[in-house]
């Protein structure tokens, strides 16, 4: 991931030969650039879908395959003469059934020059670079698939006092990274690599292109027993989540080639552990870094709001699954103690391993109800840990694989659980046929 980000930046700033003159160029000159890649009919397809009522200049472009169909696509930036202010348009065109079709028209604001909005097509994705202000850049990647334009990932870099902050989120793999670097020296002060678990309201329909299941099989998340871990089929798992007004729901599918059940109260066995940092933190930065007027420090502890629960699957027959509240760094109120009895779990033995489904009341975490507010994301620190025992007589060979490069003593290393409000999504997906479909439905009386 780190290498990819570096490549994207260098490709745009150092290796890009597709940057046109400082004043841009007209479409006739741009046509000559495209002729080695496309037939004239396809180039005319592009021109026919651009604004005809105003002149424009092309500033940057790239050719590649961001649709994954093996045919060349094109993306470019254009400044319309009719636009007021520092505005450029980013157009994405792909070959659909032999016709170049416009699948995106984004509007970007540049800081000083239109060249600051750059285009790179690599790895079946189109990446758009933007300088938002001094020392503040973003790169977003899009992929087109079967009529749907999907936001793949987002990389942000900005300055916070003496630190440079780098943040990356992949909306298809649900991986995230955070880095804080001393700007003057380049010294890395903090980094975190984690999975993001989006949580939508129960029964909400999730459309194609939105990923909701976080899957962990990364060696950097094996926090114990990496020597004994042989790969995905040995130990890996996925998590998805939902919520309603009272509960958080989780569905964990555990891939395990040898499920070891608990034969006695003290016998080693397979189980799932979940760590939650339920403190409300208003900004993402404050989850990792604490600032005073003159200095900063890593958020390596929390006075309260840290919970750890172990979920045991039972024996999938007469012994049901059960939960133990193992650790909390605060004194529980009466309502929180009662909430422990309201945790429910079911378990199923599967041919790939086993499956755990459970619910946790928000009252356990000190919230009277679901804390999500209309129109706003709500984020908890959250890491799941799979405990895998392949031989109950050798518990020292236990493997632990988590959803972050995780230290239970440091809450800033937890992964992320994001409650998504009903009017928002995690990521962005645009169906290019949406308007056509709606018009057809209206014609049929819907």
TL;DR?
This protein has 446 residues and is mostly beta strands. It contains six helices and 26 strands. The protein has a 20-stranded mixed beta sheet that branches. A four-stranded antiparallel beta sheet has the order 1-2-3-4.
Shape: globular
Q: Percent helix among the residues?
A: 10-25%
CATH-level-2 architecture of the largest domain: Sandwich
Question: How confident overall, as mean pLDDT?
Answer: 89
* Parts with pLDDT < 50 across at least 5 consecutive residues: none
> In CATH's first tier, which class of the largest domain applies?
Mainly Beta
Biggest sheet features: 20 strands, mixed
Annotated CATH topology of the largest domain: Immunoglobulin-like
Can you walk through the features of this model?
The model has no long low-confidence stretch (mean pLDDT 89). This protein is globular. β17 and β18 form a beta hairpin. It has 6 helices and 26 strands. It has a 20-stranded mixed beta sheet that branches. The chain is mainly beta and 446 residues long. It has 2 domains: 170 residues, no CATH class; 222 residues, Immunoglobulin-like (Sandwich).
């Amino acid at each position: 991931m780190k290498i990819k980000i570096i490549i994207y930046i260098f490709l745009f700033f150092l290796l890009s030969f597709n940057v046109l003159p400082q004043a841009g160029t007209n479409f006739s000159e741009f046509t000559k650039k495209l002729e080695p890649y496309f037939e004239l009919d396809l180039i005319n397809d592009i021109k026919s879908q651009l604004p005809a009522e105003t002149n424009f200049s092309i500033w940057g472009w790239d050719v590649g395959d961001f649709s994954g169909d093996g045919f060349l696509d094109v993306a470019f930036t254009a400044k319309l003469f009719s636009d007021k202010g520092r505005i450029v348009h980013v157009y994405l065109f792909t070959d659909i059934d032999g016709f170049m079709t416009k699948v995106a028209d984004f509007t970007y604001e540049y800081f000083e020059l239109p060249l600051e909005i750059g285009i790179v097509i690599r790895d079946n994705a189109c990446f758009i670079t933007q300088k938002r202000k001094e020392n503040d850049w973003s790169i977003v990647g899009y992929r087109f698939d079967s009529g749907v334009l999907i936001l793949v990932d987002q990389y942000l870099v900005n300055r916070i006092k003496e630190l440079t902050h780098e943040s990356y989120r992949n909306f298809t793999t649900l991986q995230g990274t955070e880095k804080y670097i001393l700007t003057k020296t380049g010294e890395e002060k903090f980094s975190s690599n984690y999975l993001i678990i989006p949580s939508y309201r129960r029964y909400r329909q999730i459309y194609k292109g939105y990923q909701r299941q976080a899957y962990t099989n990364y060696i950097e998340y094996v926090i114990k027993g990496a020597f004994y871990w042989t790969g995905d089929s040995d130990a890996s798992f996925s998590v998805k989540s939902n919520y309603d007004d009272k509960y958080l729901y989780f569905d964990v599918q555990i891939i395990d080639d040898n499920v070891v059940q608990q034969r006695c109260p003290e016998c080693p066995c397979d189980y799932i552990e979940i760590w939650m940092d339920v403190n409300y933190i208003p900004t993402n930065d404050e989850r990792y870094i604490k600032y005073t007027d003159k200095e900063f420090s890593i958020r390596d502890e929390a006075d309260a709001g840290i919970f750890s629960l172990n979920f045991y699957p039972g024996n999938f027959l007469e012994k049901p699954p059960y939960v133990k509240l193992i650790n909390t760094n605060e004194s529980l109120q009466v309502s929180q103690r009662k909430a422990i009895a309201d945790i429910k779990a079911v378990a199923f033995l599967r041919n790939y391993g086993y499956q755990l489904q459970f619910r946790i009341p928000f009252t356990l975490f000190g919230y009277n109800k679901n804390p999500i507010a209309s129109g706003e994301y709500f984020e908890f620190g959250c890491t799941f840990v799979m405990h895998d025992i392949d031989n109950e007589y050798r518990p020292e060979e236990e493997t632990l694989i988590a959803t972050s490069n995780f230290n239970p003593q440091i809450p800033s290393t937890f992964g992320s659980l994001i409650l998504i409000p009903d009017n928002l999504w995690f990521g962005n997906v645009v169906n290019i046929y949406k308007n056509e479909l709606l018009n057809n439905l209206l014609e049929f009386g819907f």
